[in-house]
What does this fold into?
Amino acid sequence: MNAAVSLWWRLRRAEAADNRVPGVLAVASFAVATAALLVCVAGLLAFESRNAAPAGEGGLSIEQATIGDLYVTLAWIATTCMVIPILTLGGVAARLAIARRDQRLAALRLAGATSAQVTLMTLAEAAAQALLGAVTGVVLYLAVLPLVARLTFQGRPFELSELVLPLWQTGAVAAAVVVVAVVSGASSLARVAISPLGVATRTSPKRLSLLRVLVAAAAGGAWVLVITPMKEPERVTIVLVLGAMILAVNAVGPFVVMVAGRIASRVAPTAATLLAARRIADDPKSTWRAVGALGLAVVVVGFTSLAQVDDPATPLERYLAEDLGTGALVTLVIITVVGATSTGVVQAARVLDQREQYRALALAGTSERSLHRARALEVALPLAMTIGLAAGFVLVLMVPFASALDSGLVVRFVVTSAIAGAVVLASVVASRSLVRTASRVA
Amino acid sequence: MSHHDPAGMPAAAPERAPSPALAGPPPASVPADTSRDLVARDLVMTYGKGTSAGPPALGGVDLTIGAGESLAVMGPSGSGKTTLLHVLAGILRPTGGQVLWRGRDIARMSDRERTVLRRKDFGFVFQQGMLLPELPAIENVALPLMLDGVSRSEATARAATLFPPLGLSGLEKRRPGELSGGQAQRVAIARALVARPGVVFADEPTGALDQTTSAEVMHHLTQLAAHTGASLVVVTHDANVAAWCHGVARVRDGRIVERATSLGVAR
It folds into this structure.
C-alpha cells in the first residue's frame, strides 16, 4: 500500500502541470454547484423564516402573511427544479475529476496496487477536488449574497441576515457536494475495468430503453391523478410529485435526444453536423444533462409570464404577479449558470477523452475551425431543440389568452430564453484551449 | 493472398520499373516525370533553441520518393525516423533544408497551407488506426472527403468502393469498437486513400498487430496505394513489413546510412 501511495503521489505531481485545465474545470464546477446550492437553500430558508415570523411586527404585513404559505410552497418548487441540475453538475465534475487517469491507474496496478486500492485513491482525489471546489463555492456564495439581497419579494428586499446560513448548514451543503462527487466517481469507476494494461472504457453505445417513455407517462399521469383532485394539496405532496415529474422528464429527455440525434445523423449534410449528430446519438445522457434543466426553466418562466396575463386587482395580487416573474427569472439564471458550467465540463471531458482522435484529424488536415464547429453544433442542436420545444409549448398555452396578452411580455420571454441558450452555447468556448492542445500536430 | 481490383478506382498502375530514386535515373529516352516526386534536400531538424537545443534529430537528409514508389524507413528507436516522416508530411517544420512537393517547398508554407496540403494531397495511417469511435466504418472513411466539401452522398459512395477490395464488405456500419485490430487498420487505410492522395504516410501501421494480420494489412496498403498511384512512406521496426516496400532507407543518428532496394520477399 505504501509503495502504491508513494507512486500515486509522484505520478500526481508529475502530471500536475499537464492536467491543470481539467483539474481547474472540475474544481470550478464543484464551486459553482456549491454556490448555487447554498443560494437555493438560503433563499428557501429565508421564505420559511419570513413566514414563521409573527405578522405585522417587522415581518410580513398581515395581508402578505395570508399568502405566506404559498410563497414557501413556490420556493420549494423552485428549489426542487434547481437542485437536480445542481447535483447533476456535481456528478459531471466528479467524472471530469477522475477522467484522464487511465495511464496512472494502469501504472498503479503494475506497481502492485489492488483494484480496491486504486479505486480508493482515485475517489480520494475526486473528494479532494470536490472539497477544494466546495470551499471556493462558499466564498463565491458569500460574494454573490449582496446581489441576491437586492431582489425584492413580498414588497421588500432580503436582509443579508436572512440569507446567511448558519455554519453547520453551510458545512452540510459543502459535505453534500463532496458526497455527490464520491458517489458519482464510484459509479463512473464501476463502469470501467482497471487492468494493469490500461482502462477499457470503449464499448458500443446501448440504445436507451422505451421504458423511459412509459415511466415519464406514468409520472405525468400521477401528477394529473394525485394533484388535480386535491383542493389544497400538502406542500410535501406537491414537492414529492414535482420531484418525481422532474426525474421522469430527466428519464425521457435522453431518449428524445437520442431519437433526434439518430434522425439528424441520417440527414446530416456536412462533416461537422454528422460528427455532432453521431455524438449526440451516442451519448444522449450527457447531452441532456446540459440542456434538460434549461428546457424546464424555460417552461417555468413561460408559465409565470402566463400568470401575469390577468390584470392584478389588488396590491397583493400585483406583488404576487411580480414576485412570480422575479422568482422564475432567478430560477432561470441559476439553471443557466449551472447548465453552462455543466456543458463546458462535459465538452472538456470529451476532448480529453478523444485527444488522440483530435490529433489524428488535425494531422489529416482537419482545420481547428472545423473541430470547433462540430463541437458547437453538438451543443447547439439539442439546445435549440429543447428550448424551441419548451418555448413552443408555452406559447401554445398562451394562445387562449392571446387577446389579453401583452406583446412585450412575449418578446421578453423569447429574448430571455434565447439569451439563456446563448450563454450555455458560449460555454463551449471554455474548452477551446483543450481542442487547440489536443489537435496540435507538431 | 488474392489480388483485388478496387471498383471505382483509377485504372491499375502498370507494373513499375524500379523507382528512379532506387535504381538511378531512368533511360534517357524516357523523360522522367518528377512533378509528383517528394524530394527532401539537406533536411536538418533540431528540437529546442539556443543552449537548450538537443543534438540534431535530422542531420542533413537527402531523399527522393518517386511517384507511386513505396519506401520503408527503418532504424532503432530515437534514430530520427518518425521525425523524418513528420517533416516530409508537413507536420513539423524543419530547422533547415527543403521538402519539395509539386514544385513547392512545404517547409516554407504557412500552417494553413500545410493543413490544406495534408487534407488534399497526403493520407495518414497510424499504429492504432485513430478512427473516430462514434462513426461507423463507412463514415470514418467518407469523413476526409466531407471535410473537403464533397457532398455526403458522393463521399459515402466513394468510400463504399474501397470496402470490397480491402475485404471489408458487410462491415460498413460497424463501429471501430466492433472491429478487430486488422479490420480497423484496413478501415484506416481506406480513410487514408479515399481522397486519392499523392503520398500516404504510415507510422508503424502494423505495430499493434500479429504477424499474419500485419502481412494482410501491408498487402492491402501496398496494393491500394499502387492502384491509386500514391507513393507510400512507411516507418517501421519490422523487416517483414519493410519487405512489402520497393525500397528501404535505414536511418541512424538523424542520417540515412543506407538506401537499398527491398528484397521484396513479401511482395
Chain A has two domains: 1-205, 208-442. Residues 193-203 of chain A have pLDDT under 50 and may be disordered.
